[in-house]
Amino acid sequence: MAQSEYEKNTSYTMQEAINEAKRCLRCKVPACQKGCPINNDIPDFIYQLSKGNLGEAREILAKKTNLPAVCGRVCPHEKQCVGHCVLNAKGNPIQVGGLEQFIADFDAEMGLIKENIAQKTRGKVAVIGSGPAGLTVAGDLAREGFNVIIYENESEPGGVLLYGIPEFRLPKAVVRREIKKIEALGVTFLTNVTVGKDLTIDDMFSQNFDAIFIGTGTALARDLEIEGREKSGVIQSTYFLRMIALYNAGSVDEDEVPVSKEDKVVIVGAGNVAMDAARTALRYGASSVTIVYRKGLEDMPALKTEYKSALDEGVEFIWYADPVEFTGDHTVKGLKFKKDGEIKEIEADVIMLAVGSRPASRIVSTTTGIGVNDSGYVITKDKPYGMTTRKGVFAGGDVVHKPATVVLAMKEAKKVAEGIASYVDAIKLLEL
Ligand code: FAD
Q1: Cβ pair 315, 304 in contact under 8 A
Q2: pLDDT grade, residue 8 (50/70/90)?
């Protein structure tokens, strides 16, 4: 399978990384940094790298991100740092993501920085969910002297990083490595615990937590309620990606993966999840993968690089096609759709839906006082930043701001971590 341009750009040798870093113009007003949602000091880390000072480069990154090896690989760089680089004018922007990844990977091998572990004396915080939002809050608060316990529903931490984004874009070993670093800060992980089922927010407060952070993402995949929805073989893309991740980890057998080799796969929706599911299905051995989207190429929510990779790898696209029926008897045999005023049909052994997601209500429905909007997103305030309508309960990431990106979840989570710290400090002062 052909590697995409993006994948090629992400594994530099030391010499290549230094050469790439040396091309940086160190602009007085660095547009790349403005383009980075977490305001990474990009020119400085690249400058240090260009001098071969990898430890300094790593220190600079660590000031803003707990997950550089992840961001280096999966951030939408074309819209952020790379997209803002002035060298775009010459068609050859600095590959900031590749350089960030290089430093993070080198650090993982060589142990460039040793963090001081803070005494956990400032308070006790529960974090629900271990995706980018939960990991960021946990890492930042642990560094600031809080005792943090993460509660995670799955058997392993990582959220979408582990169970959504496919291995070929984000190796699970990289995610596990980043999580180990957060654990090394003194964060405790409790897995296989579903808050709202195994214990509630009220149970947590009775365990003397000073604050609780909800970073549970958008676990409920949106459905497509058209005729034939009940047929077997119509599944959610996120379910397929999760089962593939579990299969690759050796946790489930091949017969539990909901796609078989040589299957004809149709995917409804054209966002990044659809692209990931399509490219994963092809790698798994599907004989064909076709994405059906009700709008056109220009409206597609997926990143252009992801679309291009999917196209290069053989994914087919049908634009302006409005699904009307899943056909077949008990098992799906195809998808009928309306295009140019006519009803057409495409054959399928499996049809995957990739039409969005929203938060589950498990936590908010098993306690009181946490307000959500009409779509189920948790409502938060600006002071203290990220606090919900219930005192001491905070929220951040996709569960508040809708499905977005890893770095946007991290950006918000960093601000919420500050909100939690100031809130806990204030209540401790009042207790004196
Ligand atoms: P999540 O990552 O969803 O983490 C939530 C965690 O909470 C999960 O571990 C979940 O198991 C846990 N949880 C939920 N409910 C409970 C409960 N009741 N009790 C205990 N634990 C619970 N973004 C990018 O920037 N680049 C990409 O390339 C990219 N690709 C993507 C591909 C896919 C297939 C998907 C689905 C998303 C992708 N995204 C990408 C989006 C990005 O992954 C999300 O925006 C980000 O993970 C959100 O982080 P989060 O921490 O808010 O939530």
Answers
A1: no
A2: very low
